[in-house]
Amino acid sequence: MMDKEEQILVGITGKDRPGLTASFMDILAHHNANILDIGQADIHSTLSLGILFRISEKQSGQVMKELLFKATELGVNISFSPIDDEEYESWVEQQGKNRYILTIIGRHLNARQIASAAVVIKDQGLNIDSIVRLTGRQSIKHPERNVRACIEFSLRGTPTDINDMRSQLMQLSSEMEFDFSLQRDNMFRRMRRLICFDMDSTLIQTECIDELAIKAGVGDKVKEITERAMRGEIDFKESFKERVALLKGLDVSVMQDIAEKLPITEGVDRLMAVLKRYGYKIAILSGGFTFFGEYLQRKYGIDYMYANELEIDDNGKLTGNYVGEIVDGHRKAELLKLIAQVEKVNLAQTIAVGDGANDLPMISEAGLGIAFHAKPRVQANAKQSINTIGLDGVLYFLGFKDSYIMTEQ
Known about the structure:
Strand content: 25-35%
Number of strands: 15
Structural class: alpha/beta
Mean pLDDT: 91
């Protein structure tokens, strides 16, 4: 007849030190305990270790006695909780539930911001399995050294209404100045392979056509058309033709001067370096111009670049026309799918980042669509957004941790 077994949950807290976990595991190993679950966190050198193990009732008393002596010897606190079979089985059944990852980012994260996100999680009937900090620790004496904060919630369950949940988070992010991403925790989230960027007002902090228009003396007129197009108030193709026509006669040398002075968006250098290091395929899908896209492509080693080509006459002047098919919102979505097909990447493994109305189709099509410092219409339709920090915030939505990135640099 087999000995009756029971489950015991051990909780250990106290000052962390090398070998502490090993000391307790050695005792459990000596008694051939079966480890059902284990988790550990370290906050400001304070350890919180939980171990759920199964062992025969004949041995349990001796095991707990040895664990208690070891805790006393090491100067840490220890607690024991019996877990009956029904309670354990109920917990096991929770594993079949959906899992989500909620990431929140800000220049700083305070208790009100985190509490507001936690209330949404609770109201949607989800349980928080774990909370992890992805960014490096912030210095009190030198706050300028780390100007971002990010934490990741691992959630279990099925939201009452996931669209309503995203809507609530979007509203809170606007009111309380933090960014968020809510993603299904599946293999696709862990294996993103292709990322497509808009260029103007995303990778760079300007609209190139506006810069050209200023040089051509039609800046105000073109800027007004650009803004209406980005807000989705007028058709992009029609607005594009109108704006390009106004550039007629501009010398091509002006484009080189603008390219060399492009204002690169905060975080782009870091983002590109990390993406290239970890093997992501990168594309620029832009309603701007190939001249500037090619400049960025060379600068960062970008794999694909699609934009609009301006027609130049024999005297090196812009004709006011363009060459080939206009890259509008519909074309961006097509190109995203085409590149994914060429790279043999599932669409669920793709990422799209942009700010304007003409980016919405690719943002909606991608596995992870991100609105970056976007126009109101884009914000309203995107599932996640970045407004408070630079473009390298995308890395946290992909699950990167500062500690790992810095270690690998």
